[in-house]
């Protein structure tokens, strides 16, 4: 096979740069695998390794520092048959650390070549996450304070199933590149080499020195048995279908009529775990089935089963412009937490406002029409108050018949809760008509 | 006719699917998370892919890769996530990668109030990326708009090869409301123009200033780079090529603004004041206008659904009919600077709040009356 190098852009690196060896080893590996330029996408990072994409005649994607693996993942998932080779330096490993770990855990069929030359060559030789502590680099004493990262141990710990470490002078470099590309999963090759332009000026490195450093750090040769597992794209494919969107523009036809002209805003004030939002939803869906316009906003803390839970449901016979409740028509006070959350608004209640108030829940002074409800005496537990309050609200507001709520519950409440919901709606209605 | 009870985030998901989106990546963040979960339900059965990124940077990175491979891609986040998108937004701008970004805004700055709405990122979306080149920002007022504008956003991203924002907010994204989906505007779906015949120069533009597309991984090798490049996709430092490139990137987005200036202009004869607003605040303004008119007070309303590029012609035309403008927005004064610049010397007043609740109709009524007596 012919070379995949770009005839219009011959490679140019600093004299003696180890990247040039990696470049030719990659070209040789691609040739060995009988790949043609259109079969391969080279994704390069920022830094001197970022010159790679220009020197190949393949598809070439050059993006932002440390992010090469993210672009590569998007490309590979969209084009599963493409051979995607990511080239980055030790700088990219540092700045893109989270992406490297995620790629190891994900195990998408990508090949990552890390051209590890122990410094930021392009910006003047600053220390990177792989710079030895004893090296003299362009970051003063800072590198002496931090031990270098062992890339191979890191990626293996993160789940990479194929890990290689080689000196750039290793005779089997292109063979290892080819193995990595052929491997059906995430394959990482940590290639150690010198940067003559920056690093090696103060830290001389002969090829033998590099070989010895790799020997000391430990050779890695490929498959990591404990990390081998199905490739991500193939595993993902088993969750992917091929259907076309099934559009339902029709929505819910009106099934009954509500007795409402204008707007009716209700604020349900409860506590988490008391099915306040579900009750708000049932109230809203009953209105939807009556052909009313509706908005619902919920408010709750991040804690589950603790803290306030509020639902604001606005019904209207006309289209709703402002989706807020300026003066509630009804406030349903079910728990102290919810009442405390509604700091404002009590003063805005008018004598027409209905306040359905559990007897054990104190509320601030207001001018509304208070209806005290003893849920406990009626045998209605805390978790059932909100649903029962809908029966009371329907009766006192006169907007819906209990049958309308019951019918809506049959369509919107999970089967396991339907019977109790219907019982609670009736119990609530009874409480409202002593 | 029947209603569907849905929130703005669900409407975004439906709009995206309708527009042909087949790749989504996002990182959970209130109040945008339900777009991620909605896309995860919607796309895989259709052959699409959804990823939960390890962070926001990777989420937008996955989308850029998928888009360059030819899929329509979307990501969604809130203000803190837009901050992390920034470098990749400039990449998408400079390297002409179609992408839809939904920003379900929450009250800021910083982590702010996660469950409270605001429109505090309006100028941030326009300017929050290096280089200062234009992007498109569309602003829905309700769930129905979320559907329609998401479709428009995809169409514009494809047509212009640039990132397009849908500037939603917590008050729209997480408020459920009745929508008549049969009546909702469903724009025809636009796909990116592909290169046909002859050698391919990846950044050689057509007459509209947009380069025809070929996918990476397809039969013709394609070059893509975040660095300043010429039509051939190779890095350049030639001032002539560079100036031509940035001017083209600006012109291709700004020149056709009249073809995607989305707005509602409710003009009343003899009105002396024009209220200009956008987002959920537009709904307070509509209520305020009804109340003012019921009191016999003439007033006009302009609701902008395209915020950037600034629809200057629309603003000038509407402003020409009144003595003053009142810009109302859920922040401390951002878009008002665009309006004032465009309608100068017509006096432009401002009213805004960013306190975690919606601006109320009565507050706008009061501000109109105050502006007219000042």
Ranges of chain A with pLDDT <50 over ≥5 residues?
A: none
Give the beta-strand count of chain A: 13
For the termini of chain B, the CA-CA separation is 47 Å
Q: What is the strand content of chain B?
A: 15-25%
Task: Write a brief structural summary.
Chain A: This is 2-oxoglutarate synthase. Chain A: One of its GO terms (biological process) is small molecule metabolic process. With 434 residues, chain A is an alpha/beta fold.
What does this structure look like?
The complex is a heterodimer of chains A (434) and B (374). With 434 residues, chain A is α/β, with parallel strands linked by helices. Chain A contains 15 helices and 13 strands. In chain A, strand 11, helix 12 and strand 12 form a beta-alpha-beta unit. In chain A, helix 1 packs across helix 7, helix 11 runs parallel beside helix 13 (385-397) and helix 11 packs across helix 14 (402-412). By secondary structure, chain B is of the alpha/beta class. Chain B has 2 domains: 1-260, Thiamin diphosphate (ThDP)-binding fold, Pyr/PP domains (Rossmann fold, 3-Layer(aba) Sandwich); 264-373, Rossmann fold (3-Layer(aba) Sandwich). Chain B contains 12 helices and 15 strands. In chain B, helix 2 (33-42) links the parallel strand 2 and strand 3 (49-52). In chain B, helix 1 packs parallel to helix 6 (143-160). Chain B is globular. Chain B starts with a strand and ends with a helix. The model of chain B has no long low-confidence stretch (mean pLDDT 97). The chains are: A alpha/beta (434), B alpha/beta (374).
């Amino acid at each position: 096979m012919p070379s995949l190098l770009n005839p219009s852009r011959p490679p140019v690196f600093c004299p003696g740069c180890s990247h040039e060896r990696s470049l030719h080893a990659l070209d040789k590996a691609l040739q060995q695998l009988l790949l043609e330029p259109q079969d391969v996408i080279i994704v390069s990072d920022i830094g001197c390794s970022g010159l790679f994409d220009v020197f190949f005649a393949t598809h070439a994607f050059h993006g932002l520092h440390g992010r090469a693996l993210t672009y590569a993942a998007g490309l590979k998932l969209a084009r599963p048959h493409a051979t995607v080779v990511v080239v980055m330096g030790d700088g990219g490993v540092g700045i893109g650390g989270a992406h490297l770990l995620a790629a190891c855990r994900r195990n998408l069929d990508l090949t990552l070549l890390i051209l590890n030359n122990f410094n930021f060559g392009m910006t003047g030789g600053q220390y990177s996450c792989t710079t030895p502590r004893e090296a003299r680099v362009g970051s003063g004493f800072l590198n002496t304070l931090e031990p270098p990262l062992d890339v191979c141990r890191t990626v293996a710990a993160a789940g990479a199933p194929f890990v290689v470490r080689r000196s750039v002078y290793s005779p089997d470099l292109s063979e290892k590149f080819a193995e990595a590309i052929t491997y059906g999963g995430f394959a990482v090759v940590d290639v150690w080499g010198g940067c003559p332009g920056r690093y090696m000026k103060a830290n001389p490195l002969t090829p033998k020195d590099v070989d010895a450093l790799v020997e000391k750090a430990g050779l890695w040769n490929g498959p990591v048995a404990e990390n081998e597992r199905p490739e991500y794209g193939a595993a993902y494919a088993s969750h992917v279908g091929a259907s076309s969107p099934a559009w339902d523009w029709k929505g819910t036809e009106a099934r009954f009529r509500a007795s409402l002209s204008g707007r009716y805003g209700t604020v349900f004030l409860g506590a988490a775990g008391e099915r306040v939002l579900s009750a708000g939803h049932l109230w809203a869906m009953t209105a939807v089935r009556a052909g009313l316009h509706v908005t619902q906003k919920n408010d709750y803390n991040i804690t589950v089963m603790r803290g306030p839970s509020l639902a604001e449901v606005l019904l209207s016979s006309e289209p709703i412009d402002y989706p807020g409740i300026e003066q509630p028509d009804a406030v349903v006070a079910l728990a102290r937490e919810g009442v405390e959350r509604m700091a404002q608004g009590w003063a805005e209640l008018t004598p027409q406002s209905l306040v359905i108030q559990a007897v054990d829940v104190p509320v601030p002074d207001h001018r509304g029409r208070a209806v005290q409800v003893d849920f406990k005496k009626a045998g209605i537990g805390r978790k059932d108050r909100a649903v029962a309050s809908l029966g009371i609200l329907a009766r006192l507001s006169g907007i819906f018949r209990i049958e309308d709520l019951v019918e809506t519950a049959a369509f919107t409440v999970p089967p396991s809760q339907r019977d109790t919901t219907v019982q609670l709606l009736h119990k609530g209605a009874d409480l409202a008509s002593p | 006719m029947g209603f569907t009870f849905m929130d703005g985030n669900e409407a975004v998901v439906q709009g995206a699917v309708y527009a042909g989106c087949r790749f989504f990546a996002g990182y959970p963040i209130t109040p945008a998370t339900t777009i991620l979960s909605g896309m995860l339900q919607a796309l895989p059965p259709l052959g699409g892919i959804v990823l939960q990124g390890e962070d926001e940077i990777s989420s937008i990175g996955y989308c850029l890769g998928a888009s360059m491979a030819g899929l329509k891609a979307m990501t969604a986040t809130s203000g803190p996530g837009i901050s992390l998108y920034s470098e990749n937004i400039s990449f998408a701008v400079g390297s002409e990668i179609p992408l839809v970004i939904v920003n379900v805004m929450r009250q800021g700055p910083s982590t702010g109030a996660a469950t409270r709405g605001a429109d505090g990122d309006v100028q941030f979306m326009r300017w929050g990326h290096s280089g200062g080149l234009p992007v498109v920002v569309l602003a829905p007022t309700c769930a129905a708009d979320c559907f329609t504008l998401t479709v428009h956003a995809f169409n514009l991203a494809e047509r212009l090869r640039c990132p397009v924002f849908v500037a939603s907010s917590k008050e729209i994204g997480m408020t459920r409301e009745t929508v008549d989906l049969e009546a909702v505007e469903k724009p025809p779906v636009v796909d990116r123009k592909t290169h046909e015949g002859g050698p391919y120069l990846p950044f050689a533009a057509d007459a509209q200033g947009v380069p025809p597309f070929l996918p990476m991984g397809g039969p013709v090798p394609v070059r893509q780079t975040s660095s300043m490049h010429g039509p051939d996709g190779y890095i350049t430092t030639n001032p002539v090529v560079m100036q031509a490139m940035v001017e083209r990137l600006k012109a291709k987005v700004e020149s056709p603004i009249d073809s995607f200036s989305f707005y509602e202009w409710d003009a009343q004869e003899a009105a002396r004041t024009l209220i200009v607003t956008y987002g959920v605040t537009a709904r307070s303004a509509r209520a305020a206008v009804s109340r003012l008119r019921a009191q016999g007070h003439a007033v006009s309303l302009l609701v902008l659904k395209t915020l950037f590029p600034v629809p200057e012609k629309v603003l000038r035309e509407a402003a020409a009919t009144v003595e003053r403008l009142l810009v109302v927005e859920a922040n401390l004064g951002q878009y008002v600077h665009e309006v004032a610049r465009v309608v100068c010397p017509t006096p432009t007043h401002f009213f805004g709040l960013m306190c975690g609740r919606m601006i109320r109709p009565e507050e706008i009524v009061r501000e109109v009356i105050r502006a007219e007596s000042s």
